[in-house]
Write a structure and sequence with these properties.
The structure holds two protein chains of two kinds. By secondary structure, chain A is of the alpha+beta class. Helices cover 22% and strands 19% of the residues of chain A. By secondary structure, chain B is mainly alpha-helical. Chain B is built from eleven helices and one strand, in the order ααααααααβααα. The chains are: A alpha+beta, B mainly alpha. At the A-B interface, strand 3, strand 4, strand 5, helix 3 and strand 8 of A face helix 3, helix 8, strand 1 and helix 9 of B. Strand 4 of chain A pairs antiparallel with strand 1 of chain B.
Amino acid sequence: MTSLPPPSDKKLGLVIDLDTCVGCHACVVSCKSWNSSGYGAPLADLDAYGEAPVGSFLNRIHTFEAKQEGRPAQIVHFPKSCLHCEDAPCVTVCPTGASYKRQADGIVLVNEDWCIGCGLCAWACPYGAREMDQAAGVMKKCTLCVDRIYNDNLPEVDREPACVRTCPAGARHFGDLGDPDSAVSHLVAERGGIDLMPEQGTRPVNKYLPPRPKQEIGEAEPVDLVALAEPEAKGFLGWLDRALEKL
Amino acid sequence: MHPAPSLIVFTTLSGLGFGLMVWLGLGLPVAWGWAAFAWCAIAIGGASIGLLASTLHLGNPQRAWRALSQWRSSWLSREGVLAVATLLVFGLYALLWIFFGRRVEALGIAASVLALATVAATAMIYAQLRTVPRWHMPETPILFVLYALAGGALLALQALAGLVLLVLLGCVQVLAWWRGSTAYARSGSSMETATGLTHHGQVRLFEAPHTTPNYLMTEMVFVVGRRRAAALRRIGLALGVVIPALACLLALIVAVPPVVLALAALCHLAGVVAMRWLFYAEAEHLVGLYYGRRPGDRAAA
């Protein structure tokens, strides 16, 4: 059924810290790697070694510049993947029942054996979280690494989404956002986590932590850095310096 | 949005075919034998070619039957179910009409209602999408139904109904263009809400996430021919509404051969194709915000 299930207590999702993300794209590579070698049809690339490669990715890093009047511009690296919305419009538009939201943990998934590749779910998503696999003709989206997080064959430390596991900056956090006492819920509360496009009524589970404001640059005179690199010569070197100066 | 030829053929031809079924089901025009066969063939042919064209844009068309299962929640599924039901009921009506000379009124009315509902469901596939503000308006389903009824009236040689519906269609189309131009602004979404940087000043894209276009860009962030929108609107209105309406008026004043209205229907079809192309080409999807596209961007046409 592509009707949404009744709201679950458990809401697994990501918390992404826009203050910490350095835009290294390691999560993109890690995601692509995991999802091309595990569950489902691989994330295909067309013309991978040609002039115009095209491929599907479940996670992309955009970089934005935010500029306030009279203040220095701020660069914000912005990772974007499925937000596993509570009112997911991509689920209800699906004609086949391939697109669904799990009752148990709220993860939004695609059943690739049922997907006809009509693309309507991608049209319905305001975030661009779904990309068609142009080789398999089925819709691809973030699975929240459902094949990692419950996978008893992996060491416990690896039972989190590949993007979170790999992030060298610690900008990505995974947990249960339905539990107010979870670490991710605390993080959201402390840092004022926000929803993307709340006006679209999708109620995303994933939250973003806004970048902290940049420090004000004061009015002080600039420091003469060159002088710092040329300390005053003393002793023999000082005598030599003065003697050479006189020549 | 990318104006996919398969979807333009689908919505125009199936709209026209189902529109004609509405009139045939209501018992108009009065015809028997070969004439009845020709009319039914046009209606069923248009609807079927349109529906088949729609399967061309699927990644896995062999599974299309699965699309009939989610009618409780999905407009696309409802459209599929209604289309099949309409074709079955109208097919039976046509069979009895052509070969047994019996035009069963109840069956005809059922086919008319189903045909109209199918067109409305097609429109709702677009109108339901909040992500495309220009489509997410009450005008969208009204327009689709008016297009179907007006085109069907022309094909069914109904001059008076055709005239009234075409005038109405022209008015609603202009209203939709006018209100559509501000729909994006009314949606309240911007690059600032999309990135959550509402308190950080004005946001612009500094670096794109990838260097070659991806599915999102070729499908939804696609910008084509918007610079020519005004010219295409005039062509669409002239061919789709004004000329066919004048033909209807002429047919009401003096006796003209039926071929005049048939030609008017062809002219109308050409106009609808132009306007349907614009329906896709002018539609801006919110995901463009993540690629630095702001509402009204006409670049890269």
